[in-house]
Each structure stands twice: as structure tokens, then as C-alpha cells.
Known about the structure:
flat; 3 domains; 4-stranded mixed β-sheet; GMP Synthetase, Chain A, domain 3; alpha+beta; 23% strand; 379 residues; 32% helix
Amino acid sequence: MASRIFTSESVTEGHPDKICDQISDAVLDNILANDPAAHVACETVCTTGMVLVMGEITTEHYADIPAIARKTIKEIGYDRPEYGFDAQSCAVITSIDEQSPDIAMGVNSAFDDKDDEGAGDQGMMFGYACDETPELMPAPISLAHKLSRRLARVRKTGVLDFLRPDGKTQVTVKYDSEGHVECCPAIVVSSQHCPEVDIGTLREAIVDTVIKPVIPEKYIIRDTKIFVIGGPVGDSGLTGRKIIVDTYGGVGGHGGGCFSGKDPSKVDRSGAYMARYVAKNIVASGLASRCQIEIAYAIGVARPVSVHIDTMGTGRVDDDRLAKIVTELFDLRPAKIIGKLGLLAPIYLPTAAYGHFGRTDVDLPWERLDMVESLRAVL
């Protein structure tokens, strides 16, 4: 295999799209904590001075959506009028309807202990894992997320008190002919900051306190290009507009559906989480160095219409055989996924920034490796 180069990006929690993801998931968590039987599809839009929360929600619980939105915005760090957007002064508008009765009928309620609950929508979901990093994620997105988390941390702790919440990172990784990470030819960090800070000071501070503590020294070579620039200040935001940041950074496939604001009866979310769980356990078991799984559903139908495995030539067994093993060991019906992964718990807000997969800072059930021995035992 020839050497190759691949780039992935991440964004901080203060990015406008991520503000929206976090508000949507904060609403979801609030409702699930009080009504696990609720059906939630919550979308958020934000722009200068305004937040709009809309969607379809069926629940017995009253959620104070404006209060939830303001609390989320404040915790992100938008707490000063000079930022152009802050929790206290922004308008919060809501437009909420109940879930479509046609969808409700097709789902047949995930919460009546019916194993054959139908999928909440049609579509295909992808899961991916590889052995490039300890968390079994592709190196470019793993490093980009670490930079974003570090950028937020130095801002929140006051190490760089001139930074503002909005920021983006991007990491280019070069692989050698055997597929191992060789170096990082380019690293980009963009951060909103106080206008009084000059670009030279910004660059030096971010290189020293953000990039060097995160990127291994062996990956930064003489030819590595490091770009530090000011970040955006006036973008609008929308739930579900960072689906590649949320998943694998462009590595592998993506079905197109977002996660945030959706309860687990929506297979866009629960199916993708299960696919990651399966792929990660396959790689951790040693059955493959890289694994992508595609699971496809039809609305109102419990069992997947197809399950496809691609180990990209790294599998110890044939991909078709591995797909059969997966369908025997893992119950891929939505109700069973919800039960297996405990998806009715209010666990979603932490996933709304810095990725849904490969997380080591929070305990996410789809990241557990409790099926490794079962996979090995089948062979």
C-alpha cells in the first residue's frame, strides 16, 4: 500500500452549529430524565441575538425550553454582550408540535417491551473502528478533537483569557506504506478572540499551550505547517450540520442522518451507536485492523433489511461470514439496541460536542468492549 495523506476537522463547543446540537440534546436529556417514554425530535437554529427551538415532541413532561437553552449557552461560555451573542440577552423562540401519528404508528412504541418495535425511519447507518489509536478511532479526527477540547480548556481555565468560545481545528495525517501514522504535515487552529490581541501573540500562545501539549512531538516534523488564525464571529448555527465532526472525520461511510435532539427510537442515532459498538468490538477482538459496518432499516420494520461488513482486507475471516456472526451475536432490532445500550438514560448532552465516538472523558455504552470474548469464542 502506498503512503497516503488524510485530513479531519473538529470544532469547539462554542461553534454556532455545536451550540445548536447542545441545546437540542439538553432538551432531550431533560425530557428523558423525567419521561423515558417520550418521543423527541428537537432542532435548533441560532443567529445573532436569537435562538429558535423547533420540532416534534410527545411527552408527559413540561420542559422549560427557554431556560434550558439559556443555561446551555451560558455553560458554553457565551456570557458577555460583547461576544455578540449571550445567554442573558438572546431571544429564545419555540415552535413545538407533537410527533406525527403515522410515525408513531410505525414505531409501535419502543417503550412497551415489544421486541419487534419498528424502526422510526428508513435509512442506513454506519459504524467504524480501526487500530490507529487506543480508542480505536482514525488518527486525524482523534487528534483534531483533542485539539478542540484543549482549546476550550485553556479558555475556560483562564490560561488564555483572550480566547472566545468559537473555534475550529484541523489535522492532516500522513500514513506510511503499512498504514501507520508517520507525521502531521499540517495543523490548523482557528479561534475567536479579543480584537486587541495581535495574530503573533495568538499564534505563539496557541502553539505553546494547545498544539504542543496535544500533538505528539514525533508527529511534528521540520516541514509541518502550523496555521493559527482568528475564528468566525458571526456565523449562524443549525442542529445536525457537523455530522462528519460527530462521527469519524470523513473516514468510512455516513448515512446522512444527524444524532442530536433525537430520542433513541430514531435509528439515525441508535443504529449508528450500535454500528460503532459492533465495529469497535470486532477490532478490539483482533478479528480485523479496520472495520466498517452498514446497517439499513425500513420504517416500521424491526429487523434490518441488510447488514454489510467491510474489513478492507484486514479481516481474519471472510467479511460475509463475519456479517453472519454479527447478526447471530448482536440483536439489531431497535428495541433491543435501546435495551442493550441503555439509551433511555439522559446521556446525550456530552456527546453534542467533541464527537460521539472514541470518547474517553465520558462513559458511553456504545464504547464498551464487553463483546470481545464472545466474538473470539465464535471462531
